[in-house]
Design goal:
globular; Rossmann fold; 16% strand
Length: 616
């Protein structure tokens, strides 16, 4: 159940209503290849594209509660609610009757019982729309962390919404237009939480309810990170983390279709795979695990961010657990495939500087999808338990800036956190990304609540953790959602069970790092599940390709754009900087500028494929 779209229009109904919602829904076909349907009412139209996971036969959508004497209440739902069996039992005691075994029907009846406040009772990942004919309003609800996407925009007569921006762009009132602030979000790779990049498009902030009716639009936050005193001792804290994580995995391995797990051989993915093996139903057979690779481990070249290759550790873990393991080896040439890169852009709806990181993830997800429909992923653990290098550096903890960008500058120099190296100086001046980044940072910091008297390291860590969970994590989640859904693969994120997050968020740093290493608390909680080589492995991020053929192909594409005066990105380029990159440079500048080159190449494709009008 992975793609929804629709609109509200309070003007008199017109014959094109069904065709428009169908076009918006069909734009999301790869999010839900199993089924696609629409529902239209007097003032609302909802559409769904379904990836069947729970109650394959019974979970048909949109789902409508339509009883004599009352206006219809229609639901378009995407995601998974992992406590739906308990909710269904409670709702039955309140007089609700059910005809399916799907969580979709539980969500609809939860709304009928509690209204928009039902969001507070849902444990899971979701984004859904309810047309409440009784009040004549549309209600949009998004999960606490933004695991599932949701966008909306005002249109003549009402409001349009969709899981991805491409659905909104099917609406005739929403052309593909991007202003200076939207371009800042794209090129700076830093986005205001509510920005949809395209002019007029909003991204729904996670943990909120958006209500739209004849009187206008109202946004209400139903969940946020709250500071609380932590009174448990270390042993109790370790045990509680284990219990909460174990319960999260136990709930999230439930699936009526094949389920597997990403396995990089790092602490996070290995812990999830080990717990999944313990809790997966015997009817599902052995757990399948998947890792990405770029050739023999002996060809791996260590740097100061990635000191070890994933392959040997993933194989060690797979053998230890007895999983059916697949290493998806990807050649550099395939990462520059025009078709695949177009698919990446189409999945994202906008360019990014990630280049091969996105392309390889899409190819990995496609290989995963050949056997499984659902994947467990370790995203969220680093943000929650303090796994990134910037958590361990006191200077970076105190820095007044977004931690991941401050870290990039620390490692790569002042240009390491921006992707403007090849853009025209006058455009760079107008973008003024450092001021934009500072504005985003200050707005984010203003929303962080502290305990009375909280100071020093605990204050700095709370600020950094909050910024990571509400900022950097959304970059990670969006990437995994878009590449996974482009392959019709649903990703589940057990570390983002909100009960676990609320608990660990308030654990003091002295406990989170009690043995002086990253993620000490998590390591202690799962120490009995992993072999020592994996348990104590230093964190290594998702790997980029080191194949020289890929770098050469990227340079060739950049050279083609620079030489083509009709290329839409050509007027935006700084010719001398592009030429210097094409002529080669130091290793450090190549590391910085490869991302800048990726941005130019994707920017050109975006302007072409989406026919974007820049309003600068």
């Amino acid at each position: 159940m992975c793609g929804i779209a629709g609109f509200v229009d309070y003007r008199p109904a017109h014959p094109g209503q069904h065709g428009l919602v169908t076009a918006m829904t069909d734009a999301l076909a790869w999010r839900g290849p199993d089924d696609g349907r629409v529902w239209t009412g007097e003032h609302a139209a909802l559409g769904t594209r379904r990836l069947s996971v729970i109650d394959v036969a019974g979970g048909v959508q949109p789902l409508v509660h339509d009883v004599p004497g009352s206006a219809p209440v229609a639901l378009a739902y995407t995601g998974e609610v992992f406590n739906y069996t308990e909710l269904r039992a409670e709702l039955r005691t309140r007089g609700h009757a059910f005809t399916t075994d799907s969580d979709t029907e539980v969500v609809l009846h939860a709304y009928l019982e509690w209204g928009a406040a039902c969001a507070e009772r849902l444990l899971g990942m979701f984004a859904f729309a309810v047309w409440d004919g009784r009040s004549g309003e549309l209600v949009l609800i998004r999960d606490r962390f933004g695991i599932y996407p949701m966008y909306w925009a005002h249109v003549p007569g009402g409001l349009a919404f969709g899981s991805e921006i491409k659905a909104l762009l099917e609406h005739p009132a929403l052309p593909a237009r991007v202003g200076l602030d939207g371009l800042r979000a794209v090129i700076g790779f830093v986005k205001r939480p509510e920005s949809g990049v395209y002019t007029g498009v909003n991204e729904q902030v996670p943990g909120t309810v958006v209500r739209f009716g004849r009187d206008g639009t109202a946004v209400h936050r139903y969940w946020s990170l709250q500071p609380r005193d932590h009174t448990d001792d270390l042993d109790t804290t370790v045990a509680t983390v284990r219990d909460l994580l174990e319960d999260s995995v136990r709930r999230q391995v439930v699936s009526d279709v094949p389920l597997g797990s990403f396995l990089s051989g790092g602490l996070d993915s290995s812990a999830l795979a080990a717990l999944a093996v313990r809790h997966l139903s015997p009817d599902n057979g052995k757990l399948r695990t998947y890792a990405v690779g770029f050739g023999p481990a002996e060809d791996f070249r260590a740097d100061d961010i990635r000191t070890t290759a994933d392959g040997p550790f993933a194989r060690t873990m797979a053998e230890y657990l007895g999983t059916i393991h697949t290493s998806v080896d990807i050649a550099g040439a395939s990462l520059m495939s025009p078709r695949t890169r177009s698919d990446v852009l189409r999945a994202r709806d906008m360019p990014t500087p990630l280049g091969d990181l996105d392309t390889s993830l899409l190819l990995l997800c496609r290989a995963f999808r050949e056997d499984c429909t659902v994947a467990l992923t370790g995203d969220g653990a680093d943000e929650l338990f303090g796994g990134y290098d910037w958590f361990l550096d006191p200077g970076l903890r105190r820095a007044n800036g977004l931690p991941w960008l401050e870290f990039a500058r620390h490692k790569l120099g002042p240009g390491g956190a921006t992707y403007t190296a090849m853009l025209a100086p006058d455009l760079v001046d107008r973008l003024d990304l450092r001021r934009y980044e500072e504005d985003v940072y200050q707005s984010a910091v203003a929303g962080i609540e502290l305990l009375d008297g909280e100071s020093g390291t605990d204050r700095d860590i709370r600020r950094m953790t909050h910024l990571n969970l509400t900022g950097y994590l959304r970059i990670i989640l969006d990437r995994k959602d878009r590449m996974g859904m482009a392959a019709a693969l649903e990703s589940r994120v057990p570390f983002l069970d909100h009960r676990l997050v609320e608990y660990v968020y308030n654990v003091p740093w002295a406990m989170k790092s009690f043995d002086g290493r990253e993620k000490s608390l998590l390591r202690a909680a799962v120490r009995d599940l992993l072999p020592p080589s994996v348990l104590y492995r230093k964190k290594a991020g998702y790997p980029p390709t080191q194949d020289p053929a890929y770098a050469a192909a990227l340079r060739a594409e950049l050279a083609r754009i620079a030489a083509d005066r009709h290329a839409p990105a050509h007027p935006l380029l700084h010719g001398a900087a592009v030429e210097a990159y094409l002529d080669g440079g130091t290793d450090a500048s190549a590391r910085v500028n490869r991302a800048a080159a990726e941005m130019v190449v994707q920017l050109n494709r975006w302007l072409t494929d989406y026919d974007v009008a820049l309003s600068l």
